[in-house]
């Protein structure tokens, strides 16, 4: 067995006789999903960590810059 045939064999995709999916319909509520995400972001405490990190980062930038 050649060394290259081992590596090429793992990339071969078998041909199947299926109907291709051209388009799918998704019922999505982007604003509702964003609200759920932001609620979880707030409840987990990550919002406070972000705000504290921004304040500390801005302070560090201000103290370490010249002028």
What does this structure look like?
With 67 residues, the chain is mainly α. It has a domain at 31-67. It is 60% helix and 0% strand. The protein is built from three helices and no strands. It has helices at residues 3-9, 30-43, 46-64. The chain is elongated and about 70 Å long.
- Protein structure class: mainly alpha
C-alpha termini separation: 68 Å
Order of helices and strands: HHH
Estimate the strand proportion.
under 5%
Shape: elongated
- Tally the beta strands: 0
Radius of gyration: 26 Å
Quaternary assembly: single chain
Main beta sheet: strand number and arrangement? none
pLDDT average, as an integer? 80
Poorly predicted regions are: none
Count of helical regions: 3
Percent range of helical residues: 55-70%
For this entry, give a set of tags.
60% helix; 3 helices; single chain; 67 residues; mainly alpha
